[in-house]
Amino acid sequence: xxxxxxxxxxxxxxxxxxxxxxxxxxxxxxxxxxxxxxxxxxxxxxxxxxxxxxxxxxxxxxxxxxxxxxxxxxxxxxxxxxxxxxxxxxxxxxxxxxxxxxxxxxxxxxxxxxxxxxxxxxxxxxxxxxxxxxxxxxxxxxxxxxxxxxxxxxxxxxxxxxxxxxxxxxxxxxxxxxxxxxxxxxxxxxxxxxxxxxxxxxxxxxxxxxxxxxxxxxxxxxxxxxxxxxxxxxxxxxxxxxxxxxxxxxxxxxxxxxxxxxxxxxxxxxxxxxxxxxxxxxxxxxxxxxxxxxxxxxxxxxxxxxxxxxxxxxxxxxxxxxxxxxxxxxxxxxxxxxxxxxxxxxxxxxxxxxxxxxxxxxxxxxxxxxxxxxxxxxxxxxxxxxxxxxxxxxxxxxxxxxxxxxxxxxxxxxxxxxxxxxxxxxxxxxxxxxxxxxxx
Length: 440
Description:
five-stranded parallel sheet; alpha/beta
């Protein structure tokens, strides 16, 4: 008996050592789970999985979790960028080397290997072995192959996108004040166009409207009457919301001065304008593109996986990746926006991805993964001027009370107590002293 205990202790000790000449870690007695991504699904999985039972490694070019529902607030300085991110290492890895700041560039399902490329030094490439693989790499914004979007528009998916938008807004206001700038050029610089009427587009427009009404009048008084915001959407805004709440939002947005809802389709974007299907041309200084989702390069490269029409990885209700309509890869799973449960369509939202990640991790912890069933807790959206929409199975209302619910709900969903302290401080600073317009 004593000999067997000695062997077990030795194996546990060896499991923490790196094999010479290899990028991988030896793992004795535990199944190795490799998780790709640090978005809602992957982060929820990595937090929930029992690390005493499994050897968990995470691969991502981003070493933090981003609380995306409040991302729009950082574009105008309502919140600071670091107030909505949580370092991934805070979830507690058994070994520091179990987090890889790297891109997953290929997956060999037959050899159970992931090919990685360092996000810091692209010359460094290596493979990771796995017993189980969880793919949660998310998606990109869909340009729908509209000419000029990739080159001339900004997106709102990552923290660096928010920083780029913030700097562009401040730069345009400062440039419009420089000597020799004509009134026509000032109007162009201060015309901001948002393409896409989903929650991201509407909430960014709401934050921009608050910035214009509360801060521009104070900081850029001579320019306040030149500013315009246009929200371009070919269909209905906030299509997933209740019809009455949609109508409430449309009425509020249309009533605002210098804010225009444009029902049209974008066919071209240049460095100075947006061209619409109707023939109208909108001269502008900033275009923020927020329409649809497109698969990442890694997702596209998985030729062995079944995909839906949108390019998402098809899975069964246990999140196992399908290779045909009826065959699965038993040790490869996909969750979040990059995946689609076959014959069980779900919205691409943070709520869905987070619940998927937790469900899958709990299944691993129990030793048996059950089929996933989703029941929505509801939706929230901020529409500006201290008003929001609340759409739940039991309550549907809008206005100031809904804004209070919106803030309270997101505050409780922040990933750590540090963020739950930081975000209210930022909100208080903005209320008392205005938004920070520093150009970083």
